[in-house]
Amino acid sequence: MPGVNTVEEAAFMNRIEPNRPQATAPSKLAGPAQSAPAAAPVQKDARPAAEDQFVAGKAGHQKDQPGDPLVDFSEIKQRRSSRAEGVKQVPPKELSRDQMLDKARAEIVRSFEKDFVPTHEFQDTFGGQQWPELKDRIQADAKGFGNDPNYEDAAEADGGITFVGQIYGLYTEVTVHKDGKVDKPYFEID
Q: Sign of the C-alpha dihedral, residues 115, 118, 119, 125?
């Protein structure tokens, strides 16, 4: 087969054109006079020339070419921050009184268990009681908290509410802000 210069080319041609006569590479013994004319050299690496320049030292490199791995990330941060400045801040949804009271009750139970029961003040006053002994009573008190007619809610300047009542017979206050943030409850021991 004319134009076949190497054993690799002959094997390739035989694979892609199996019905043609078998291609063979010229014998090394035949010498240059009997071999076929040299074909154009085959490029082993098919990378584009621009990529060769990039690999060879970034010669002629221009920023922000598509797929460019050398994008300046500080520019991306600037673009991202300028987009963030244009985003309209949506105020949080305001909570109803019942939603705020539910948050207050949950925080009362959590704070009583985690913050108040372990204190020396509580332990000295109530004889070393632990949370498992108190849990049911505190949860029952919290369920009714905020509905006692003897105590009124106090409105806060930010639109929140300070709920007042009794937990475990103790005067208790907890403030819930309009955005849902709950301040630490106050339990008063006389």
A: positive
What share of the chain has pLDDT > 90, as a percent? 46
CA distances from 153 to 60, 96, 145 (A): 72, 13, 11
- Give the pLDDT confidence score for residue 52 in this predicted structure: 47
Domain count, the chain: 2
Q: Are 159 and 167 in contact (CB under 8 A)?
A: no
Nearest to 134 by CA among 170, 172, 168: 168
184 and 103, same structural domain?
yes
Residue 170 covered by a domain: yes
Q: Tens digit of pLDDT for each residue in 17-37?
A: 666 665 555 555 544 555 455
CB count in 10 Å sphere of residue 65 = 12
Q: Which residues contact 34 (CB under 8 A, 6 or more apart)?
A: 26
Contact 26, 5 (CB under 8 A): yes
Q: Which domain holds residue 151?
A: 97-188
- Residue 114 forms part of a structural domain: yes
57 has a pLDDT exceeding 50: no
How does residue 93 score in pLDDT terms, banded at 50, 70 and 90? confident
Return d(Cα 84, Cα 104) in angstroms, integer.
34
Sheet containing 161-167: which strands, arranged edge to edge? 154-155, 161-167, 170-176, 186-188
